């Protein structure tokens, strides 16, 4: 016969582990999204500066 209390405890541990894994995965995704956003912002800023420099030189 299966010990229900032991089985419930194991399920709770597995659920907690799954929650920790999901939280870590979400943190990695959030860091990646932040990194990409920062790179896009930096690239956009550099491009805008290049356009300004070109227009100033053209005057």
Description:
The protein is 93% helix and 0% strand. The protein is an all-alpha fold and 59 residues long. The protein has a domain at 25-59. The longest helix has 55 residues, at 4-58. The radius of gyration is 26 Å and the shape is rod-shaped. The mean pLDDT is 91.
Q: Roughly how much helix do the residues carry, as a percent range?
A: over 70%
**Order of helical and strand elements:** H
Largest sheet: none
The geometry reads as rod-shaped
Distance between the termini: 88 Å
Question: Uncertain regions: pLDDT < 50 for 5+ in a row?
Answer: none
Task: State mean pLDDT (0 to 100 scale).
Answer: 91
* Cα-based radius of gyration, to the nearest Å: 26 Å
Structural class by secondary-structure content: mainly alpha
What is the strand content? under 5%
Q: How many DSSP helices?
A: 1
Give the number of DSSP strands: 0
| Subunit arrangement of the protein | single chain
Summarize this structure as a short list of keywords or feature phrases.
1 helix, 59 residues, mainly alpha
């Amino acid at each position: 016969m299966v010990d229900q209390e032991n089985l419930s405890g194991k399920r709770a541990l597995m659920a907690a582990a799954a929650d920790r894994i999901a939280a870590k995965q979400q943190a990695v995704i959030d860091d990646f999204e932040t990194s990409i956003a920062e790179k896009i912002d930096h690239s956009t800023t550099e491009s805008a500066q290049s356009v300004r420099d070109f227009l100033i030189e053209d005057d």
